[in-house]
Design brief:
By secondary structure, the protein is an alpha/beta fold. It is 40% helix and 15% strand. The chain is built from seven helices and seven strands; from the N terminus they run βαβαβαβαβαβααβ. It has a seven-stranded parallel β-sheet, sandwiched between helices. Strand 4 (79-82), helix 4 and strand 5 (129-134) form a beta-alpha-beta unit. Helix 1 crosses helix 7, helix 3 (64-72) packs parallel to helix 4 (97-125) and helix 4 runs parallel beside helix 5.
Length: 241
């Protein structure tokens, strides 16, 4: 049976490109009143041209207070997908403070901040909710020049568990998904470092964006009604090693 979100309100961060854009489009297709958040107005404009009924929010999640203000304006949200993320290549020994701050501000603090605002509204509304945090297989596997990114994703996995523990009594489910390599604008610059993961993958291929989208939709739906606090690998079996 097809999953529908009619009557639900959804927010997707990092919705201008990649996973986030595809997820936002799918949720709108499934009937949710969807809000797409991105720091890049041009991406939001092109998204509106493809999905005219989508709502957009232009804000940089590195700005903690502006993000809270903009997210607070949209009211109650039933379905939250924390997808926004950045990375910058650098060896551990050479990584400057500015890189650390930028990646943690978006990947971890941005997720924490938006979730805090939305979860408070979910609790006040009394109808529960569902939150999916986009993590990565790199929360468990190290690659060269990806130290800060991997560390933020490990933090997201633990944040997911803590949120599930504290929000569960309010009927709010929280999970993360941990994809392996999916070729996007963010992953392509790391192709040389990431390709060694392919022969380690039992299924012999990397997933497509559609595989990630379908997993998110499942975790947001009633079909996963008793799943919470999980970090679900989407990796063709890579994580069994």
């Amino acid at each position: 049976m097809a999953i529908r979100f009619d009557g639900k309100r959804a927010l997707v961060t990092g919705a201008g490109k990649g996973f986030g854009r595809a997820i936002a489009k799918k949720l709108a297709e499934c009937g949710a009143e969807t809000f797409a958040l991105s720091r890049t107005q041009a991406d939001l404009d092109s998204l509106i041209s493809e999905v005219p009924n989508i709502n957009v929010i232009n804000v940089d999640l590195q700005d903690w207070y502006k993000s809270r203000q903009e997210v607070s304006k949209i009211g109650h949200i039933d379905l939250l997908v924390n997808n926004a993320g950045v990375t910058m290549r650098s060896l551990f020994i050479d990584t400057p403070k500015e890189n650390i701050d930028r990646i943690f501000d978006i990947n971890f603090k941005g997720t924490f901040n938006v979730s805090q605002v939305i979860a408070k509204r979910m609790i006040q509304n009394g109808k529960g909710g569902r939150i999916v945090n986009i993590s990565s297989i790199l929360s468990e596997k190290a690659i060269s020049e990806g130290c800060v990114y991997s560390t933020t994703k490990a933090a997201i996995d633990m944040l997911t568990k803590c949120m599930a523990l504290e929000l569960g009594p309010h009927n709010i489910r929280v999970n993360s998904i941990n994809p392996t390599v999916v070729w996007t604008d963010m992953s392509r610059p790391y192709k040389e470092e990431l390709m060694p993961l392919l022969p380690m993958t039992p299924m012999g291929r990397f997933p497509e964006i559609e595989d990630v989208v379908n997993t998110v939709v499942f975790l947001l739906s009633d079909q996963s009604g008793m799943i919470s606090g999980e970090s679900l690998r989407v990796d063709g079996g890579l994580g069994v090693h």
